[in-house]
UniProtKB/TrEMBL annotation:
Keywords: Dioxygenase, Iron, Metal-binding, Oxidoreductase. The keyword Manganese does not apply. Fe cation binds at H135, D137, H187. The keyword Aminoacyl-tRNA synthetase does not apply. GO terms for cellular component: cytoplasm. One of its GO terms (molecular function) is oxidative RNA demethylase activity. It comes from Corynebacterium glaucum. Its cofactor is Fe(2+). It comes from the Bacteria. This is Alpha-ketoglutarate-dependent dioxygenase AlkB. One of its GO terms (biological process) is oxidative RNA demethylation. The gene is alkB.
Length: 226
């Protein structure tokens, strides 16, 4: 984009929403893309493969790979396996990344709350030009924050946070947290801008977004003896 050279500062555009630009170095982005690709290849052709889910309005344009818990649709639910195929596990480095993002976010807005225990992660691939409609991340019973990483082409992320709707430009390497009062805010991706991704991420086109989330509330974990 035209103003690429301008520094982008961390921001707190609404209570519980923190944007940390350039959180991931290019090498970290490349490593995350390579790791996700390897996992996707390991489950290709199985029922837990990366797929474009069918939702109420039709088939999503976004490709999704579920880790930890599989995000099943019709009806929405989180499951451990599909037809005997286990959901691939969360890679060991995700929890550490989530903790680092949350530490940075808490400095800016303590309302983002505790670091989620990363029990599920979605690796979304958006081909150029694709979007994700407005929705609430509602399937997790935990109220701990969602940690989101963006790699590749840029997009506008819209969130209807308490206090007003916010549009954020998410670029390659950015981290975003929505927690506390914004945890159940409606949000969506307004369209991935073709040709805006930097070289060196391992992506030739499109955008990858990784969200890390806690599924269970602590009380439920205790009740289940986990
Ligand atoms: O791609 C993004 O930035 C957000 C993805 C999202 O909202 C989701 O996976 O639930
Ligand atoms: Fe979401």
């Amino acid at each position: 984009m035209l103003f690429d050279a301008l520094p982008r500062e961390p921001s707190n555009p609404a209570p519980g929403v923190v944007h940390v630009p350039n959180f991931l170095a290019l090498e970290e982005q490349e490593a995350l893309v390579a790791q996700a690709r390897e996992i996707a290849q390991s489950v290709a052709g199985t029922p837990v493969a990366m797929r474009r889910p069918y939702v109420g309005t039709g088939q999503m344009t976004t490709w999704m790979l579920s880790l930890g818990w599989f995000w099943a649709t019709k009806p929405y639910r989180l499951v451990r396996e599909v037809d005997g195929h286990p959901t691939p596990p969360i890679p060991a480095n995700y929890q550490e990344i989530a903790a680092k993002v949350m530490a940075a976010a808490r400095e800016i807005d303590p309302q983002v709350g505790a670091t989620p225990e990363v029990e599920t992660a979605l690796v979304n691939f958006y081909p150029p030009g694709t979007s994700m409609g407005m929705h609430v991340d509602a399937e997790e019973e935990s109220d701990n924050a969602v940690v989101s990483l963006s790699i590749g082409e840029e997009t506008i992320f819209r969130i209807e946070a308490p206090g007003g709707t916010v549009d954020l430009l998410l670029m390659s390497g950015d981290a975003l947290v929505f927690g506390g009062p914004a945890r159940r805010a409606r949000h969506g991706v307004m369209g991935v801008r073709a040709g805006t991704g930097p070289a060196g991420t391992g992506l030739t086109e499109g955008r990858i977004n990784i969200t890390m989330r806690q599924v269970h509330a602590p009380s439920a974990r205790y009740a289940n003896g986990l």
